[in-house]
Write a structure and sequence with these properties.
- The strands form two sheets. The protein has a three-stranded mixed beta sheet, with no helix packed on it. Strands 4-5 form a two-stranded parallel ribbon.
- It has helices spanning 2-5, 85-102, 113-126; strands at residues 38-39, 45-50, 68-73, 106-110, 131-135.
- It has three helices and five strands; from the N terminus they run αβββαβαβ.
- β4 (106-110), α3 (113-126) and β5 (131-135) form a beta-alpha-beta unit.
- The longest helix has 18 residues, at 85-102.
């Protein structure tokens, strides 16, 4: 209803309900021992940048219903060295399995221009994701 009132297709509204926000550097909950996400300074949105796929020990993902939560991950080797070709294939396979297991709402693929389309195609062909964005 708030989106219609504000003529907003992609509005992010405060106090919209949903699940609790993820633990963040701005959490007021004293029980949050490890703050993993950073809260946007003006929006009800959270992000985390890390080197590993966001998969906790129990292998279950928290969906944060009606919350904007973004995980930015770089697990794919950037080198085109022939010796790293097998590692790249293994990482793409691992990422594909992770995506199929956890089914995030969307996937954005960014890489060097010479790699991005092949990488994006491989991930698209090996996952069942509905929304895949390929860019550089």
């Amino acid at each position: 209803v708030n989106a219609l009132k504000n003529s907003a297709f992609d509005g992010v509204f405060e106090s919209h309900g949903g699940t609790s926000p993820p633990p963040s550097s701005s959490s007021s909950n004293k029980d949050d021992v490890v703050a993993t996400y950073t809260k946007h300074s003006t929006k009800d949105a959270y992000f985390k940048i890390g080197p590993a796929l966001p998969s906790p020990d129990n292998d279950e993902m928290e969906e944060y219903w009606r919350k904007v939560v973004v995980d930015v991950t770089n697990t794919i080797p950037s080198s085109t060295d022939v010796n790293k070709h097998n590692k790249l294939n293994m990482e793409v396979d691992k990422l594909s399995k992770w995506l199929n297991r956890h089914q995030p709402i969307s996937l954005a693929v960014n890489a060097k221009r010479s790699q991005v389309f092949d990488l994006g195609r491989d991930l698209f062909e090996n996952t069942s994701l509905v929304v895949t964005t390929i860019g550089s």
